[in-house]
Write the structure tokens for this entry.
Amino acid sequence: MSIEQAFDSRYELKQSYSELLLPEIHSWVCMHPAGFRTAYPSRQVNSIYFDTNGLDTFNDHLAGVPVRRKLRYRWYGPNLGLAHAGQVEVKNKSERAGWKLTEKLSPDFDLAIHSWAVLSDAMRAASSGLIRELLSVSRPTLLVVYTRDYLVSANGRVRLTIDSNLRGYNQLFAARPNLGFCNPPNGQVIVELKGDVKYAGELADVLSHFPVRANRFSKYVDNLWQDLV
């Protein structure tokens, strides 16, 4: 078990497009003057989001609070029933700059068998410090699953990801992990640009070459919103 913190802030730009534009998005990236290339093989990303009983994270985002925090447990691969080699992430954000505190949890968590009460206790027992404190005052609210493509610019300063096949599984009222009933698909593809704060202008320039305007998007807030309205 180890805790890692990214002390250097990174700048992030996130945009949402209709999934009907996915072929065009890949074409834009392929033809982009920044010379993007594949940085890592595509894979499925699975994230369990945690929030307080009062949904502070959700409400802070809706209210536009400039400095906010998001707590999630993340693992990779197609198996939703077994969370293998995952880590807890505390994602901090101030405006468009962000930094993360992460802790890898050595045990696997069997979501197909155990209740949330058992799983939450096990996660707290396997964690430490601030992450354990945050888990102790939070509960699982949403499981988000998507396929992520990873690219990097030719100069290595801009990382670009494309998230597709996005789906969310509401956990708000579930005593056991809900792995079978997902929210209605929102038909969105998420393009995210990341880089050191000093390259913020370069990220904006990369995005300016995309010919279609897009909306900002939060996987957590937009999926949870469907369950609260």
Q: What stands out?
A: The mean pLDDT is 90. The chain is about 25% helix and 40% strand.
